[in-house]
Design goal:
The chain is an alpha/beta fold. Helices cover 39% and strands 20% of the residues. It has one domain: Vaccinia Virus protein VP39 (Rossmann fold, 3-Layer(aba) Sandwich). The strands form 2 sheets. It has an 8-stranded mixed sheet, with helices on both faces. Helix 7 runs parallel beside helix 8. It starts with a helix and ends with a strand. It binds S-adenosylmethionine.
Length: 275
């Protein structure tokens, strides 16, 4: 929710200029998710996670701008997919959220390496114009697709963090991307499992001669919690003007909404301040 809500703000900011841009989703997933299937699982019933996530957000009134706009986009996707019931059924992934916002002058490139996910993504995005789905390594795509002819790009780097190399791969891809297009706007999602690991990641990033970069971080419980992933964050490279003013209240409200007991926390900081 954090990454999708911020992503929508980034798309809106890119679209404040008439010139088109490339949206590159390096780890795109399947496009969107049917929450009914997630409940059933492949064979056994599972305990659904969404009531404690998007379910809580949908039940909340008086949301700040960033979350209000996100909720509108989630509801719109659910309706477009054909749900007429009040309860949410179709939950949008990053490709569906961004696909719904594309203008005629904008383009999407979506990379998904896992064949079944890629096939589902291809089907989900088949009717979205100017959208290329690629069964390829998203890190390779950064070198292959930048700089785009438009000379404007928004990247979402959202890997599964299943490999030990993930942070190192991200740092390398960011360095390559910035060499090819120094003004590229990049959003990188990371899990908050070990603080020290995240700090080492930030250290590695700052060695890439980073332009202005902000971090939005969210924790739903304290370090004492038994939760495996207590929170997550988003690194935003070259954030658009005044993004922090919209993201800060949004992240704070989201941490309160998703709180799993004492210790919920939100922070928006500069890794490299604006000049
Ligand atoms: C966290 S999910 C992406 C979710 C999606 N960005 C969204 O917000 O809806 C990560 C995806 O990356 C895919 N993946 C893993 N390694 C990859 C790689 N090197 N290149 C491209 N896709 C990869 C996985 O199969 C998985 O579907």
């Amino acid at each position: 929710m954090l990454k999708h809500a911020v992503l929508l703000q980034l798309v809106a900011a890119m679209q404040r200029k008439p010139k088109g841009f490339l949206y590159l989703d390096t780890h795109a997933g399947r496009g969107g998710y049917d929450l009914n299937v997630a409940v059933r699982g492949d064979t056994l019933a599972r305990i659904p996670e969404w009531p404690e996530g998007i379910g809580r957000l949908l039940a909340q009134a008086d949301l700040p701008e960033m979350l209000r706009e996100y909720v509108v986009a989630v509801r719109a996707h659910d309706r477009r997919q054909g749900n007429t019931a009040a309860e949410l059924r179709f939950y949008p992934g990053s490709p569906a959220l961004v696909g719904a916002k594309m203008r005629e002058q904008d383009r999407m490139a979506l990379c998904e390496q896992q064949p079944d996910e890629c096939a589902a993504l291809q089907a989900a995005m088949a009717r979205t114009p100017r959208c290329a789905v690629r069964a390829m390594d998203g890190y390779e795509a950064v070198g292959a697709m930048l700089p785009p002819p438009e000379r404007r790009a928004l990247l979402l780097i959202d890997p599964p963090f299943e490999s030990e190399r993930e942070f190192a791969d991200i740092i390398r891809a960011v360095g390559e991307g910035l060499r090819r297009l120094p003004d590229a706007v990049m959003a990188i999602w990371y899990p908050l499992t070990l603080r020290a690991r995240v700090d080492a990641f930030f250290d590695g990033l700052t060695h890439q001669a980073l332009p202005p970069t902000m971090v939005a971080e969210l924790e739903v419980a304290s370090e004492a919690s038994a939760l495996k992933m207590r929170g997550c964050g988003l690194v935003i490279i070259n954030p658009p003007w005044q993004l922090l003013a919209v993201v800060q209240p949004g992240v704070t409200a989201l941490s309160r909404c998703l709180s799993q007991g004492a210790g919920a926390r939100a922070a928006c900081t500069w890794l490299v301040p604006e000049r």
